[in-house]
């Protein structure tokens, strides 16, 4: 049986796999990418489309996010991919929320140097037409966030790999076994000098022992989407409220966070129990994406709880007002997540093979930068 030889083989057609295929192709490698589904259907298309640098852990991870942002912009410039530099607004309707934001801005020079700043309630309302100004004490404006439409962006990146770099992208192809440098697939036998396994939520097929030893679990989330907003209405900056300050690592070192956490646990125990924080973004055609919740386990039931959806929408109404709020889509997502604050799993289970996984809910934000780091090792 004939064996096809390439420099780099990538397993997985979600954002992590696409990013590693791009990084390898930019180095001049002959690259093949295998994805078992006919098109991406996992976490990479079930998200907000937020390139969310401001929420990332300070230091190297924040810089990784900024590098990923640059690559999204480069792809957009070459392909016409919709990537709106909307920025973001963190809205503070309570004094403890304002305190966390003020401390973050005061103590985070890299974000401040890029234009992150506290603004007044009136200015926030001018920037964001959905902002609920009643009771608003102030807001943090960050210019670094980019909004893409994941259901369009992931296929567009795959197409860019083919057209710009000649990557052999093989959707509907399963990798059955790896014994480096050989791969056995439903599209025949392959040989690759470097194999990158970016299999996302599939922990069982390839190198299951790596995942068993890593502590990796699955995070299940619930999200919602409205119909197209009327008359071309635009959200502008992506929005979030105080619960988000308890979710993202960027705010973990703020001393004011403890008081916010205590109040939220007392006032919103259901939200905290189900890992709810609420973000609002927009798609290329004007729909609004709303979410989400977070539940962590090795295996999840497939059902969505309407009480969780209602809690998400109830909290959204505390900081945002939508022209046409009717929900037209509801879904669950599932992505791999590492415990103990680890931001990625990069393991070499055998010479010539690297497993990359565990980027959590920040795949769209971090994958391009992470891939360059992995390929540079």
Kindly describe this structure.
The protein is α+β, with helices and mostly antiparallel strands and 377 residues long. Helix content is 32%, strand content 27%. The strands form three sheets. Strands 5, 6, 7, 13, 14, 15, 16, 17 and 18 form a nine-stranded mixed beta sheet that branches. Strands 1, 2, 9, 10, 11, 12, 19 and 20 form an eight-stranded mixed beta sheet that branches. A three-stranded antiparallel beta sheet has the order 3-8-4. The longest helix is centred in the N-terminal third of the chain and has 20 residues, at 60-79.
Q: Return the average pLDDT rounded to an integer.
A: 97
Biggest β-sheet strands, sense, barrel: 9 strands, mixed
Low-pLDDT stretches are none
Q: Tell me what portion of residues adopts beta-strand conformation.
A: 25-35%
Described by its quaternary structure, the protein is single chain
What form results from the Cα inertia axes?
globular
Figure out the total of helices.
Answer: 11
Estimated radius of gyration: 21 Å
Distance between the termini: 33 Å
Overall strand count:
20
């Amino acid at each position: 049986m004939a064996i096809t030889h390439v420099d780099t083989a990538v397993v997985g057609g979600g954002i992590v796999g696409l990013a590693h295929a791009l990084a390898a192709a930019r180095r001049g490698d002959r690259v093949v990418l295998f994805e078992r589904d006919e098109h991406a259907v996992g976490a990479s298309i079930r998200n907000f489309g937020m390139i969310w640098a401001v929420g990332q852990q300070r230091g190297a991870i924040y810089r990784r996010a900024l590098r990923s942002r640059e690559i999204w912009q480069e792809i957009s410039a070459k392909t016409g991919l919709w990537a709106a530099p909307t920025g973001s607004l963190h809205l503070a309707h309570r004094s403890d929320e304002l305190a966390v934001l003020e401390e973050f801005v005061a103590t985070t020079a890299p974000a401040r140097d890029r234009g992150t700043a506290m603004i007044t309630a009136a200015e926030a309302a001018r920037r964001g037409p959905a902002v609920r100004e009643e009771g608003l004490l102030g807001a943090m404006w960050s210019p670094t966030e980019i909004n893409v439409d994941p259901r369009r962006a992931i296929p567009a990146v795959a197409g860019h790999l083919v057209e710009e770099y000649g990557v052999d992208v093989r959707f509907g192809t399963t990798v059955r076994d790896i014994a480096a440098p050989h791969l056995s697939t439903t599209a025949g036998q392959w040989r690759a000098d470097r194999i990158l396994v970016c299999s996302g939520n599939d922990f069982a097929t390839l190198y299951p022992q790596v995942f068993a030893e890593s502590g990796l679990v699955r995070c299940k989330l619930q999200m919602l989407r409205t119909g197209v907003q009327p008359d071309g209405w635009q959200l502008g900056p992506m929005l979030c409220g105080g619960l988000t300050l308890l979710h993202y690592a960027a705010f973990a070192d703020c001393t004011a966070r403890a008081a916010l956490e205590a109040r939220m646990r007392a006032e919103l125990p259901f939200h905290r129990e189900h890992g709810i924080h609420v973000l609002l973004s927009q798609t290329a055609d004007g729909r609004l994406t709303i979410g989400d919740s977070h539940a962590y386990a090795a295996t999840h039931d497939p059902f969505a709880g309407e009480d969780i959806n209602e809690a998400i929408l109830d909290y959204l109404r505390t900081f945002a007002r939508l022209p046409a709020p009717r929900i037209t889509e509801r879904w669950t997502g599932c992505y791999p997540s590492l415990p103990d604050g680890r931001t990625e799993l990069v393991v070499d289970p055998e010479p010539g093979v690297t497993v990359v996984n565990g980027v959590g809910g920040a795949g769209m934000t971090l994958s391009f930068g992470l891939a360059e780091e992995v390929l540079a090792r």
